Amino acid sequence: MAEKKKWMPRWFYQLASPRWSYEIMGKLLPWFAVAAASLLAVGAVWALLFAPADYQQGNSFRIIYIHVPSAILAQSCYMLMAVAGAIGLIWKMKVADMVAKSCAPVGATMAILALATGAIWGKPTWGSWWVWDARLTSMLILLFLYLGVIALNSAMESEATAAQATAVLALVGLVNIPIIKYSVDWWNTLHQPATFTLTERPAMPAEMWMPLLVMVIGFYCFFAVSLMMRTRNEILHRERRASWVRELIEKQ
Amino acid sequence: MNDMQTKEPVLNRDQTMVGLFLAVLKRDLLLSYRRRSDLVNPLIFFLMVATLFPLGVSPEPEFLAQVAPGVVWVAALLATLLSMDAVFRSDFEDGTLEQTLLSPQPLFVVVLGKVIAHWMLTGLPLTLLAPLLGVMLFLPEGGMTGLMLSLLLGTPTLSLVGAIGAALTVGLRKGGVLISLLVLPLYIPVLIFGTGAVQAAVTGLPLAGYLALLGAMLALGIVMAPLAIGAALRISVSG
Amino acid sequence: MSFDSFSDFLAMDGHGLYVWMSYAIAVVLFVINVVSPVMRRKQLVSELIRRMRREKNAS
Predict the structure, then answer these.
(1) Which value does ipTM take for this structure?
(2) pTM of structure
(3) Kind and range of the H or E element at B83?
(4) pLDDT digits (tens, 9 = 90+) for A86-125
(5) Which of A230, B53, B140, B218 pairs with A77 at a CA distance of 20 to 30 A?
(6) Is A240 exposed, middle or buried, given 0-12, 13-18 or 19+ CB atoms closer than 10 A?
(7) C5 CB contacts (<8 Å, ≥6 apart)?
(8) Interface contact flag, B185 A158, Cβ < 8 Å
(9) A246/C contact by beta carbon, under 8 A
(10) Interface residues on B facing A, Cβ-Cβ cutoff 8 A
(11) Residues A141, B168: C-beta atoms closer than 8 Å
């Protein structure tokens, strides 16, 4: 047993303590909040004011600075949810369950944002609000997967059972995502010989992708902020009978 | 001498594995044979959904021939989904499921037996009934083999994936709608390649690629899905 | 700077509606994502305080 412990770094086991996680998240939260706010502000001003307009799409191209980061985040958030769920299943780690549960609403809003901006971008570019483009369709299916996870979690009364069941569902979804993505891509080429691509551009000049990079990092920081806030709430709720939570509340 | 001793138990275990699988299969088939109405209901539903399309959209033969692969596949998918909730429900309610989980027999085999039994009672009859729907929807003659073969390979995957949803929701009162929410997104690849196979068959393109993909998904499902179903059942029963 | 005047910036060569709609939706969703955990925290804390007061009175 002692040898096994060395296999994972110390902080991994410390994370298993809700109190330790609650405190460390409380310390990290302001830093991430400042980083997210400044990066998003700089990125948005840069994207809207200084980035050059696209030679084909004109200024509607500026939607990319919202669309791409939200799409990336929606996907990585699902991955995090499944991995956290797996850790919760394997090591019976309560905090991992709480992280997995907190991922779902943030990921779902990001998927909605990616879909909404994709649809809005479609209007000036393709001339219609919705096109059954492969990326948009897979994002829609990803949103459905998120909604299924949220529905299952809220349908179960016992928190521990709900967390385990959602973890299994998230893992099944994770195995399926590549298959879904491949099948939708393939279906799309069958139905629409002339595929439109939103983001693939032979060469994007630095003035264009630099603000995009800033926005992506800003989105990740924002995700961390929202996730930590939600996870802290979960910890408070589930540990409401623990003495340290009582002391914490009494201090306020 | 030593060889003999090690060989015999292995053989025995193999036999009990197969025996267990067959016993579960036989039990489930017999149970549903005694309640024949449950057996027929998905098939009636399958026919009714396919009838709604000409009524709701258009009875034009050319139009129907074009949408027939999709309609038959969507109807088969919904019919499978409808029957999914019952797979573990009665076993859960009378306590059999708990006993099964406590028993030393490998859960993987039991679960696989139950899912295959479910497929033999829904997927297989649906496949056999499909040509009738094909005729009703003016599917060209050439598409029939594609339809049958794709359903034959695709419906077991539907049963396997649907059973994961059924296992996750078996402890809940209102499981029915939730299953569809959980499982329908996961059905999309099967739907895409299934209808793709039928369309290829109609236009006279080679089928092998689609069938190979459907077969690959089935193989993956047989290996992975029983593990997920087993884990989900343990969670549902213990919680 | 890619725009000459503020009205140019708002109009975005006729794509203003789309660009501003996207950014507005993004802002709304971001605000929701911050406000809902804050509200939830307030609710949780007040619930806990009430529960502790009840227990104190009972004992």
Answers:
(1) 0.87
(2) 0.89
(3) helix B61-84
(4) 999 988 888 999 999 999 999 999 999 999 999 998 888 8
(5) B218
(6) middle
(7) none
(8) no
(9) yes
(10) 164, 168-169, 171-172, 174, 178, 181-182, 184-186, 188-189, 192-193, 196, 217, 224, 228, 231-232, 235-236, 238-239
(11) no
